[in-house]
Design brief:
Elements (H helix, E strand, L loop, with lengths): L5 H11 L13 H9 L12 H12 L17 E5 L19 E2 L7 E2 L19 E5 L8 H32 L3
Antiparallel strand pairs: 1-4, 2-3
Helix pairs in contact: 1-2
């Protein structure tokens, strides 16, 4: 293994991951998975979207043997994107928050749609949909996965959720302060 300090090694590992933020590896995103790999706490075999190519790149970086993808994490496959059947969409907005790159647009009580060029194919929008109007389809021809762009979109998504949660905490605290004791 490399003599690099763990944070720099984690950054190098993360740079090799596809940044789909799908959580199939068992971690809350690509950065936590990369940190676990760098710390020796996770194998290099847990990224289905990256498949054999990512495993090979990680093996080279870390001077480890190539191993097959861990089947517990899923199977590699062609790039896919989510597609919402807008006629069946009820506008519940449950798909918006789990999308790690804000590829789904819409608002509560309005139909939603997926911006295919932003979708990483993570599938995190599927479970919360109460009417199963979202399906995964092959990515459009010529679609390119852009890990740095995916990473920046994920950072923006995460920051937006943190701001919203902080605003809610402040609003609740303000309401509690108004209640007479």
């Amino acid at each position: 293994m490399s003599a690099e300090p763990a944070p720099r090694l984690a950054d190098a590992v993360e740079a090799l991951l596809p940044q789909t933020q799908c959580r199939r590896c068992g971690y809350a995103g690509c950065a936590p998975y990369a940190a676990a790999i760098a710390a020796g706490e996770a194998g290099i075999d847990r990224c289905p979207p990256g498949g054999d190519e990512t495993i090979a790149a990680l093996a080279r970086l870390l001077d480890r043997d190539r191993v097959p993808l861990n089947p517990e994490c899923g199977a590699p496959g062609p790039a896919r994107v989510a597609v919402i059947d807008e006629e069946r969409c009820i506008g519940c907005a449950r798909c918006l928050e789990p999308c790690p790159v804000d590829a789904i647009v819409g608002a509560a009580k309005y139909r939603h749609t997926v911006l295919a060029d932003r979708c990483t194919g993570c599938e995190l929008c599927l479970p919360p949909c109460p009417v199963d109007c979202i399906e995964m389809r092959p990515a459009p021809t010529g679609a390119v996965n852009d890990p740095p762009l995916n990473r920046s979109r994920f950072a923006a998504h995460t920051a937006r959720l943190r701001r919203r949660d902080e605003e809610r905490r402040r609003a609740i605290a303000a309401k509690k302060a108004l209640v007479p004791r």
